[in-house]
Amino acid sequence: FSTGFIKDIILNRQGSISIAGGVGYGFDYFNHNLKVEEINNISNFSSDSSISGNIFKSHNLEFPLELRWRTSSVNEYDFWRIYTGIKFIYNLSNNFQFDDTNNIRNNFTNITSFTKLQYGLTLSAGYDEFNINVFYGLTPVFENSTINGESINTKILKFGLIFYIL
Prior knowledge:
The chain is about 0% helix and about 65% strand. By secondary structure, the chain is mainly beta. The strands form 3 sheets. Strands 1, 2, 5, 6, 7, 8, 9 and 12 form an 8-stranded antiparallel β-sheet that branches. It has a two-stranded antiparallel ribbon with strand order 3-4.
């Protein structure tokens, strides 16, 4: 879930091309099979199929920069659009939670290996206020992290819907 404000700067007379910058809030909720534990500010990762209720939540500030093309005019508000750009994400807090084999809930907040500043490519396309959206993270979710000696190079890929309110 994301919400925010973005402002256009029109680049041509027709108003069909612009650049935009904004600020917003994002909440991510993932269900995964990665066991994350933090002991004495050291994050330990493992793949454990015996755990259940394994979720990861994060609260983020988002800063999008976009190049925008649309078929709008001064009097036409129903139009096609394609917006592409980059989004910078600053993590305010993260929480990893899982239930172990004894049904004991384990909670780890703001783990040190989580990459606080991430960025990725964005693409939105659609008609009127209903648009599809894709975000592909270019930075790994975790820094200097391994499982059994292999680097964790997990990146985020999100698909969704965007509703623009003009």
